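Model: Ready when you are.
Researcher: Fold this.
Model:
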Amino acid sequence: MPHSFYARMVIAAVMPFMVMLTGCITLYQASQAEQHTARSVAQTLGVIADANHLMRLFMDAETAQRGYALTRDGDYLAPYQRALSMFPRTLGTLRDSVQGETQQQRLARANRLFRQWVKNVANVSIVETQGNGSGLPGAATPASKRLVDEFRVIMGNFIDTEEASLHVRQSDSRDAAMNAQRIMIVSILLALAGALVTWWPLFQRTRHAVMEITQRSRRMVEGDLSQRVILPGRDEFAWMAHAFNAMAARLEALVITEKRTSRELAERVHALVQERTRDMRARHALIETLQACRDTRSAQDALRDQLPHVFSHARGGALWCLDMHSPQPPQRVCHWGDAPENDVQTFQTCHALHTGQPQDIALPSARHASVCPHVLASPTPGRHLCLPLKGSEGILGVLQVHWLPERDADDDNDARVDFAKGVAEDMVLSLSNVRLREQLEEASIRDALTGLYNRRFLDETLARELARAERQAVPLCVLMLDIDHFKPINDDYGHALGDRALVAVAELLNAHVRRDDIVCRYGGEEFVIIMPGAGLDAAQRRGDHLRRCVSALDVEANVPAPIRLTVSLGLACYPQHGDNAEHLLHSADMALYEAKQGGRNRLTIASP
């Protein structure tokens, strides 16, 4: 415990000591006040920066949406998707940093405006652009302009309020600094005045101590935290030096720890940014690949190649696809990593397949009642995610992804789950588009009533088959059929029965031709059968067989007896009756005309 200088000061000069002690305490308090105001200024600057960033995200999203509507270029959606993912985080940071009910209400209103814009403007525009297959006008709609303008006004008021608060806090910071300076000057002056009336040794001791402490303090303020006060002795100044040195050592240790923590945090953030960037690039590559697919098989092949790269950070996973229009069991399109390989029976126990809801299972903490049986079949600690691929017609499949447990990685796992859900949504949209494209292509070459190929498909296929027959030097026959007395059936029994008759004949033709033969509805009650590789005699026998089958066909009607149908047929063969599609069809048509004139219900071969 210091005692010598204290006793001398009490006896010789109580006042200088009191002045110095008071000045030091007041200076410390002023310094603390200055640091507090400086932190407030920095926090306000951060809030303003985040608010400006929030506005830029909205503007980037709005620009990207308009660019995509104008060009239908998927690259424009990258800023839009980035804005959708970063907007909630930036908004959450602002909500945590801002105090005051008015500012919170403004943030809430801005969030509603953004969500309303995404739902009512952006999503609608993107879906319409994708559905129409052509770019939309790039000009903003009145609804979009109103939402953007209102968002700008609200965020402008928010920033103005924060800037006003910033000015006040900066003024407080300057006042605190001036107050600290005034305290320091007054303390020194009073100490010097006290020293003038004390003994010279006390003045020397005091001067040396004050200079030492002041110099070390200034250097510490400038950033040199290795400074230490050197004051030998056992008096109060030596004790102060010891306390100062202890405080400086502790502060230096805290700063070193803070720098190390900041460096580790920066490295972690950099790693996360790289991982997120890689994930987004993989997701974008998957979307582009799926958009280029023309049919379901090529889309499944693309998923088989791309999914292991998209989920390279996962332990493994699998993709199951279903065909809602086929009784075939679910098909496992791909399987990657170290995930369990389930069979069809085990997969069909998945809750996501039956409920249509995502299943997020964390083992071993999850309750067994809520865990999919296929997960329990090979329980592995970690996170198991089952995502149903729900399209407009139902569940297209199930995406299963598995992660190993990671220590202190709850936030990362949540982000990965959100990423997986986003990938599942992309897959649903792409697979739905591929299936819609297949249906449209199928509808363009099929007759809506009979399901047979239509005239367009006939023209394309006949030309192709004739070219093949010419290359391979093989025959090709064309058989043209016409239902006899079809108009009286429509007139007497109605068009509904006429349609049933056409369907019945179409089904019979499909059932009694070779696998390589192509049956088309030529128009009205006329049908054409292309027979690649069939000679004239074989085609004649096949035509007579079809004629007899039609004659034995009964078409149910609301009359006492079923309606009997007959057909007339005209047969033409390449190369005897024509060397191109037009001539061959004309020859078959003329032969059909002769069969009609000859009494119907017969087959006539075209004249050479």
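Researcher: Now this one.
Model:
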Amino acid sequence: MPSMSVVRTEFQRCLRGKTPWLLALCLLLVSRVPTSPEQAVVRHLGDAAAFPRAQTAVAIVVPFAAAALGFRSVVGERESGTARVLLGTELSRTDLVVGKALGRGAAIMVPVLVTTPLLVAYGTYTYESISLPVLAGLLVAAAAYAFAWTTVTVSLSAAMSSTTRAAGVVFAVTLLLGIFWSDITVALLWNLVTGSTPSNEMAHPELFSALKWFSLPSAYYVLTDWLLGVPVGPGSAALQVSDALRNNGTLATASPPLPVWVGVPIFLAWPALALLVGVSAIRYGDLTPRGGPGRLRRTWANRPSLPRVAVTPATAVVGRGGWVDSLPGRWQPLARREFRRLTHGSGVWLLGATVLVAGVLSLSPSTLVRDALGARVPLAALQSPISVIGGFGTLLLTFRTVVTERDSGSIRMTAGTAVSRSATLVGVIIGRASAIAFSLVLVVLGTCLVAIPQHGVAPPHVLVGFLAVTVAFVYCMTGFGVALSTVVRRQMVAGVAVLVLAGLYLTWFQISNIVYGALTGTAVNGFSPPASPTYLLLRWAPPASLYHVVTNALLGVPNSAGNAAGVLTDALQSNVFSNIVVVRAAYGADVPVWYLHPAVALGELLCWFALPVALALISYRRRALD
């Protein structure tokens, strides 16, 4: 049994913090995000009509809350040295991991169990129906779901060697294996294994449907859908009923690809396997983070030495005494330091490799997309990987930049030089952005090179423009991440902020509908958008959406914030259910007002860089360094 003192300490520490209660607030807010179900769906749900909003809110919010509370739980103790103190007592390494998982899981369970009945009560007031046994079962499932996700994140924290790696891995698991499993990850895996894109004519549709069940949120949905008495599947109860009615006109759907009871071992397998990995890593690993160089670092250190070239074109531009040194300011040495620091590490290359794999797997689009884009297909394939994986990967590589140096005290050494604070921050941003942009530029060129036999050579002018916009997007996200690291005081707060931003972006489709309804007093459905420029402006607000708008203009795709493939295959096709809004389809013209022009979108994207960096400069110059 784990030490109850660890469980009790972690439980009390977390409840005294803000994250569990922010979780309760997020549950309340996210429950209002989905649009109200149709009357036919409500009628078929019956007594279960009061539960789908609470079911969906728990499924979406709990993974992010567990990631925020768990990603530093063990690796933070190792970095601060307190892990050695704790393990100097009778506490074992296994007790430490299990105790933290139970304590933090209980801390997340409290706001979930407090908020879920409130959400169900509101649903009961709206639909005038409730089942108390179903409510009890839903509470049990929600509590188990909270413990399962917390166990996963704490175990991953125990297996990581630094906070940055823990944040990146936990963030990737939360998105790819949690939120995006049914919609994106399974399709990418199917493409990788079979070499074909999932479609209506694929060879084994039952297997493809079964794979969607093998994630923790999908298993949670399956079990709670069975509890609510609706067609089971990896989606909310309202969605399952809506799909069944739209496809068959009745709830008498075909048999599910797997028995319902399979959801139980899937639900238990995630935390069990994660705990096995985490406990094994901390039992047989060094308690000191980065106790030895990793395999990649050792391989790089043992690489064959090559003769050094005294002067290269790159040296003449960015080297000491090069063209960059002639620019005003004293930020150049710090920029070089940050560039070397990132390019000598594995983070930027892992990010680039992930984007490259996602781009290569998307090189086999439908015939419609191939005919419309031709040699521009590889650039279109990279839109979503760069905007989503590259954007949030950049935030993960920058959100600890300044706050870590403040915690370690090394920021005072930098401040003791002749470089001003403003030049320090500018150098950090330019150096880190240049390193990340360098890896993504190589990814774009590599993807285009791989695609030559299949799609031909990308048009040079389109390729150059795409690279320029990609570099601008990277600088925007780097500036935002470093600004966040400058304004906040604690690494935990910065990490939570990144996870909140990820959640906002993932639900921006619904949030933009709510904001537009609050501004205009008119409720909207994004699948039937209003012909209002203000609505489109809201839909395009995130940097990733603006990146799509600008790159779509370069690719010759109609003006839209959706990716090029989605615009061509969904938004512009008749009788296709899509939430992608195209200006031409909504107004009959490419640009109804000047502020929806792609050139203006580029200016808005640059504002996402300028405004946060300006705020960070003001804060950095006026605040104390401690």
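Researcher: Key takeaway?
Model: Confidence is low (pLDDT under 50) at residues 309-317.
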